[in-house]
From TrEMBL:
Residues 792-809 have a biased composition (Polar residues). It comes from Rubroshorea leprosula. Residues 341-421 form the Apple domain. One of its GO terms (cellular component) is plasma membrane. One of its GO terms (molecular function) is ATP binding. InterPro entries: Bulb-type_lectin_dom, Bulb-type_lectin_dom_sf, Kinase-like_dom_sf, Pan_app, Prot_kinase_dom, S-locus_recpt_kinase_C, S_locus_glycoprot_dom, Ser-Thr/Tyr_kinase_cat_dom. The keyword Nucleotide-binding applies. It is an enzyme of class 2 (transferase). This is Receptor-like serine/threonine-protein kinase. Keywords: ATP-binding, Cell membrane, Disulfide bond, Glycoprotein, Kinase, Membrane, Nucleotide-binding, Serine/threonine-protein kinase, Signal, Transferase, Transmembrane, Transmembrane helix. It comes from the Eukaryota. Residues 792-816 are annotated as: Disordered. Its EC number is 2.7.11.1.
Length: 816
């Protein structure tokens, strides 16, 4: 009898032992732990947390979460992705500070949750959603979330899991693919959300955009027809002042689905579990076809997968490079006829499109389509507009830059209204009347024209030469009044080898620039007004009027001009080292600019601006300060150039306002881009951007950092707050720089890019700061940190919405 009793006790102990190996509970506390061989199971037994081996190597152990009741082990989250434990000594526990830590016998701490909140009664729980949470569970009080695995995803997006940004903390939740099927360490394929005014989801390969979904349109992502309403799940994109994220919800609780990024296929893939076949099936994926690859057809080129070639210019556009258009479409397309904002432009309707890249866009959720059209027309930099929410036929989205990454999506694409010259536009409102009237008036017009043609011809011919001479003389008299030397066309033509392409230095909005040599051997730079330039005459006279009498060593010197017939040219001193951007953004030439040279250039630009703002006879605001408008002489002295956009103030006037906002996106101050208000503080903001670019060697426009905000301002601000500002420094100058001096320059740049003009220093103060002659105040959060956050005064309420619509004042962007 005693032997039977002992056997019974042994069996009970054995059962308890094996039960302990599979810890059938969803919670553990600081008094317990989870060792290798034991698991934590969610209450509905959907998910399991424990240790696993990946691939053929049983020695490499990872802590992860997988589906419990699916026979094919499918891991959805890994803690120690790049740091496996090489034995079975791994233990997950809560340490004395209330953090979740993964320990191994030989190495100590392998991974930790790193929560900054100290907990009184920390508890770990695996939820039915697959989310592992660490919380402070105090009796009689509500639980406090300390950390959750959903905030730090691996390669998998589960239902109710947010993909995107917490704008309050700067947390960016994004998926990163396993390096290989056997290695959970992150590869270079990343899927995340860009928190623009009109957010997009983007797949990156390294630092390059590889795929873009298109913005949310009230039903789905405009470039993802595969995600239209289905019986299994519903997708949503939430955008407010606190968060911007993509999420999906299950329509059927029994459905099992997940979204992953797959390094092997270079795709994002949606999987559904088929209970009948007991296998995973791919329900959709992206990129879906070759037309989904980002920017395949360049600006204003639409990719049509059924066409040959697949790249097609939009109606009333033509390939930018006729010679290369058959083999390389990355240069995109240009309009058949140039825009002329002042005499009136129109729009063409292009249907069935995936909407273009929203980096330089603006949205308003309350406008209708007619108001949206008017908003676009009143701004010369608006390139297109459309309805924001097609489900409710409401809202407005407009674009201020070239339209990139267009694709024909016939089944679910949207209508886009693209700006063209008035003569090419659809004229929808008047087209019907025009057709009816055309037949009635055409006969009368022909009769009248025929009757007066001969007389008119002779009269106009006799007066044409006289008028031409009078106009030419009028322009010349205006220039002579400025006491500026006039050059003959023949002289300039000979100096530039008849405007040879070999002498061409570049081209801007004004027209081409040529190098020339005068008979006395003096080298010059010739800006020749393009006859097709719609704004060239105004800018020409403006530049002559402003710069004719300006004399400063850090301003480019105007030697004279040429006005003869239709020819209008400005003659400048020649700068042998061209512009600053040719150095700091060029990987081979940037090492020629060590830190002392860069600091010399920074100080020279600052002194030039002080002269413009307060020391010249008029107070001049440049309005287009950027690295390409800073020229370098033979001794690398900086010279501010291109005054075509500048404005002059006299007397006590310190600021102005304009409806025609011109300049370069990425350098504009918030108050100028949004409201058209400009002052000397607008130039200070541009100087701050320029300063960051010189320090970092990176462009603000198009700047991207995987773990950062989406422009160089946000990146610099985050590094500054974390005490890591030195990480911003260009590696080419790290050895030659004085760290305290360059950190001071970063500090100054952040003061220059403050949100509000009154918080920015004057340029005279900046010069003193650069010389170390004045104390620096603590900077506030800069302007244009994000496209949406920077305009908070005009944003909508923070209530989450199923769209990306915040009411923001328009920012006018003019590419140069």
């Amino acid at each position: 009898m005693e032997i039977l009793f002992l056997k019974f006790i042994f069996i009970i102990l054995l059962l308890l032992f094996f039960a302990g190996l599979s810890c059938e509970t969803d919670i553990f506390t600081s008094s317990t732990n989870l060792s290798d061989g034991r698991t934590l199971v969610s209450s509905d037994e959907s998910f399991e947390l424990g240790f696993f081996s990946s691939g053929s190597s049983a020695k490499s152990r990872y802590l992860g979460i997988w589906y419990k009741n699916i026979p094919i082990q499918t891991v959805v989250w890994v803690a120690n992705r790049c740091d496996p434990i090489n034995d079975t000594s791994g233990v997950l526990m809560i340490n004395s500070t209330g953090n979740l830590v993964l320990l191994s016998q030989s190495r100590g701490v392998v991974w930790a949750s790193n929560s900054k909140i100290e907990a009184q009664n920390p508890v770990v729980q695996l939820l039915d959603s697959g989310n592992l949470v660490l919380k402070d569970s105090i009796a009689g009080k509500s639980e406090i979330l300390l950390w959750q695995s959903f905030d730090y995803p691996a390669d998998t997006l589960l239902p109710e899991m947010k993909l995107g940004w917490d704008l309050r903390t700067g947390l960016n939740r994004q998926l990163s693919a396993w390096k290989s099927p056997d290695d959970p360490c992150p590869g270079d394929l990343i899927y995340g959300v860009l928190p623009y005014n009109n957010p997009d989801t983007v797949l990156w390969k390294g630092s390059q955009r590889y795929y873009r979904s298109g913005p949310w349109n009230g039903i789905g992502m405009s470039g993802l027809p595969q995600l239209r309403p289905n019986p299994w799940f519903t997708v949503n994109l939430v955008s407010n002042e606190e968060e911007v994220y993509y999420i999906f919800h299950l329509n059927k609780k029994s459905a099992i689905t997940r979204l992953i990024v797959n390094q092997t296929t270079s795709r994002g893939e949606r999987y559904l579990w088929n209970e009948y076949t007991r296998t995973w099936t791919v329900s959709n994926h992206f990129p879906w076809d070759d037309c989904d690859i980002y920017g395949t057809c360049g600006a204003y080129g639409s990719c049509v997968i059924t066409a040959l070639p697949p790249c097609q210019c939009l109606r009333d556009f033509k390939p930018k490079s006729q010679e290369e258009s058959s083999v390389d479409w990355h240069q995109g397309c240009v309009r058949n006829k140039p825009l002329d904002c002042h005499t009136g432009d129109g729009f063409i309707k292009v249907g069935g499109l995936k909407l273009p890249d929203t980096a330089h866009s603006w949205v308003n959720k309350s406008m209708n389509l007619k108001e949206c059209r008017a908003k676009c027309l009143e701004n010369c930099s608006c390139m297109a507009y459309t309805t924001l929410n097609i489900k409710e036929s409401s809202g407005c989205a407009i674009w201020f830059d070239d339209l990139i990454d267009l694709k024909l999506v016939q089944s679910s694409g949207q209508d886009l209204y693209v700006r063209v010259a008035a003569s090419d536009s659809d004229h929808e409102e008047t087209k019907g009347k025009t057709k009816m009237m055309a037949g009635l008036i055409i006969v009368a017009v022909i009769l009248v024209v025929t009757g007066v043609f001969v007389i008119t011809y002779y009269i106009r011919r006799s007066h044409r030469n006289i008028e031409g001479r009078e106009n030419g003389c009028s322009d010349e008299r205006q220039i002579e009044d400025m006491e500026l030397p006039l050059f003959e066309v023949a002289l300039i033509s000979n100096a530039t080898n008849n405007f040879s392409s070999n002498n061409k230095l570049g081209e801007g909005g004004f027209g081409p620039v040529y190098k020339g040599t005068l008979p006395d051997g003096k080298e010059i730079a010739v800006k020749r007004l393009s006859r097709s330039s719609g704004q060239g005459i105004v800018e020409f006279k403006n530049e002559v009027a402003l710069i004719a009498k300006l004399q400063h060593r850090n301003l480019v010197k105007l030697l004279g001009c040429c006005i003869q017939g239709e020819e209008k040219m400005l003659i400048y001193e020649y700068m042998p080292n061209k512009s600053l951007d040719c150095f700091i953004f060029d990987r081979t030439r940037r090492n020629l600019l060590d830190w002392p040279k860069r600091f010399h250039i920074i100080c020279g630009i600052a002194r030039g601006l002080v002269y413009l703002h307060q020391d010249s006879r008029l107070r001049i605001i440049h309005r287009d300060l950027k690295v390409s408008n800073v020229l370098l002489d033979s001794e690398m002295n900086p010279k501010i150039s291109d005054f075509g956009m500048a404005r002059a103030f006299g007397g006590e006037q310190f600021e102005g306002n304009t409806k025609r906002v011109v300049g370069t996106y990425g350098y504009m101050a918030p108050e100028y881009a949004i409201d058209g208000k400009f002052s000397v503080k607008s130039d200070v903001f541009s100087f701050g951007i320029l300063l960051l670019e010189i320090i970092s060697g990176k462009k603000n426009k198009g700047f991207y950092h995987l773990n950062d905000n989406l422009n160089i301002i946000g990146h610099a601000w985050r590094l500054w707050k974390e005490g890591n500002a030195s990480e911003l420094i260009d590696s080419f100058v790290q050895e030659s720089c004085t760290l305290s001096e360059i950190l001071r320059c970063i500090h100054i740049s952040l003061l220059c890019v403050q949100q509000h003009p009154e918080d920015r220093p004057t340029m005279s103060s900046v010069v003193l700061m650069l010389g170390g002659e004045t104390a620096l105040v603590k900077p506030k959060e800069p302007g244009f940190l994000f496209d949406k956050k920077s305009l908070e005064t005009n944003s909508s309420a923070s209530k989450p919405e199923s769209s990306s619509t915040n009411e923001l004042s328009h920012s006018v962007l003019e590419p140069r």
